[in-house]
């Protein structure tokens, strides 16, 4: 049976002394993406395909912005730590 702290110690060995950066905007972007997706699916189910299409396009924009934020954060902090 494995001890409960071994995964963290293995990660520390793998990444050394690098500080983990947490970006609070990434979860916000993920929640926004999920919310717009849910609203779009509901509007499709109710038969409002025009609104559904607009919401699906907004979902793609929100999802792209979230991924760009993740990549930008990784690039910005990649060499500094």
Automatic annotation (TrEMBL):
It comes from the Eukaryota. It is found in: Mitochondrion membrane. Pfam families: HIG_1_N. The keyword Membrane applies. The chain crosses the membrane at residues 25-44, 56-77. Keywords: Membrane, Mitochondrion, Transmembrane, Transmembrane helix. GO terms for cellular component: mitochondrial membrane. Residues 1-81 form the HIG1 domain. InterPro entries: Hypoxia_induced_domain, RCF1. This is Hypoxia induced protein. It comes from Macleaya cordata (Five-seeded plume-poppy).
